[in-house]
Amino acid sequence: MPSRLRQGASQLPPTANPVQALEAGIVLNRTQKLWDEGKIPEALHACNDILKTDPNHAGALYMMGMLALELGALDMAIGSLERAAASSPGTTRILVGLGQAFAKSGQPVKAAGVYTKALQLSPNSGAAYRGLGLVQLDLDQRGNALKSFRKALKINPDDQFATYMLAALADAAPVAPEGYVPALFDSYAEQFDLHLTGKLGYRIPEEIAELVGTRYAGDAIASAVDLGCGTGLVGAALGARVAAIDGVDLSPRMLAKAADRGIYRTLREGDATDILNRDAGFAGPYDLATAADVFIYIGRLEAAFAAVKARLAPKGLFAFSVEVADQGEVDIRSSGRFVHSHAYIAGLAEAFDFSIVEQKALIIRQEIDVPVPGTLYLLRSR
Question: How far apart are CA 206 and CA 270, in angstroms?
């Protein structure tokens, strides 16, 4: 949840009672701190305490709605934000939150209507243009989405997400702009493992370990390189199957978490393709290369495949996951993640002299209780 949407609930119109208004403002500031610390249940209770006294307090309703949105309680989020909008008509911040809730609940038409209303009230709301651009993607209005992200970037030239989406939509060879992914995952490092494995039901590292294990039949893999290693979930899943494993990631905070595991022989901060191409410490040859949920942030994969091929041992294995594209080769979704078609992956395998040993359709993660389909590939260097 963008921090700018978290903040400001205490600035929304309070109750008419001055004493209650002062007390509510103090509680909302405390609630904001609880939210920033990740103590969402406690923050919800604090909001509820305000609403017991003043059921129409716009700030408390707004914050409760945004907290519910972060938890994935979409009905509660929509209900709270609709009440907040009714209590404080014409407040852009509330409308942007409501648009997010409708978008997350799979109602892009309603979301677009709310964002449009927000822009009528505040024509310079970059957040509203960003949200509108995302739901326009869901509505297959790519041209309009481009216009919305351009307007968001014009309003806020430092908007990395708008830059990211524009690069993906306007470029024939989409790629995430420099700085976007490291910033995203640095902010996510502290709660990454719990959020992925608990809330999102993420099992790709275990799936990779099982897939690779069937090919080695109990023999240890001499060396492996984990691209986009993050906090080290793949290394932990592979465990004793690998004698030595090296890791690369863009996020220094993620790498610090990976180092704490004591699993990796070498860890390096930077772009995985650049590291493989230029760093003598990653020259290999490796018996295994892994990329768990990495390519969803890259786009086109030709450079990555070439770098992996150059560092794999003869008959080395390459295990990776992708989210599935419905059409074309590479596309961008409103989630901000890239999707890849099987035809594209198969074409890369052929071009870089890999054979597809196995491909497994699976659910990558749960996103607001909606399964995200993907494919796990195991390739062998020919």
Answer: 25
Q: What global pTM score does this model have? A: 0.76
177 lies in some domain: no
Question: Domain range holding 134?
Answer: 3-171
DSSP character string of 17-79? -HHHHHHHHHHHHHHHHHHHTT-HHHHHHHHHHHHHH-TT-HHHHHHHHHHHHHHT-HHHHHH
CB atoms within 10 A of CB 328: 11
C-alpha–C-alpha distance, residues 289 and 225, integer Å = 5
Last residue of a domain, one of 141, 171, 201: 171
Residues 6+ apart with CB under 8 A from 130: 148, 149, 152, 159, 161, 162
- pLDDT tens sequence across 10-36: 445 555 555 555 566 677 777 778 777
In a domain, residue 114? The reply is: yes
- On whether both 365 and 233 belong to a single domain, the answer is yes
The pLDDT value recorded for residue 195 is 44
